[in-house]
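User: Some background: our group keeps a shared notebook of sequences we're curious about, and every so often someone picks one and asks for a predicted structure to add to the entry. Today it's my turn. The entry only has the sequence so far, pasted here. Could you supply the structure so I can complete it?
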Amino acid sequence: MNMAWADRWLEQSFNQRDLEALRRLYDPQVRFADVPLGLDLNGWQPVSEFLGGFFVPAAGSHRFIPTAYLGNEREGVVEWTWEGEMAELDLFAIGRATPGKRFRVRGNSVFRFDTQGRATEERDYWDLATVQTQLRATS
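Assistant: Of course. Here's the predicted structure to add to the notebook entry:
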């Protein structure tokens, strides 16, 4: 794919909390891994449940800013910056809620695409320790 696809994926779909728009970008049998969180999911249903978990008010607000795409129509890497403000849920194993705390981390997602441009595989990489440090910091 390309940077326009990355923008549709993050700015126009995830950041809008639009699971239906996200669904259209994924193959129904997508293989998904969030490596730092130890997630390995197969199929759109569990992936949508994971992604949708960020859209509930108790999760806070999460925004991904796509910054680069390297690859071609069948495979590539999207580099992004994740900005979040936490609410009641402890999404990152801090051991307590951190409402109002903000974090910012860079990461990337490695993709493979089918001939229709849908993601058949996604592997996310980002630094969980950076997020945990930012959320544990007192202000």
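Suggested note for the entry: The domain at 3-136 is CATH 3.10.450.50 (Nuclear Transport Factor 2; Chain: A,). The first helix runs from residue 3 to 14.
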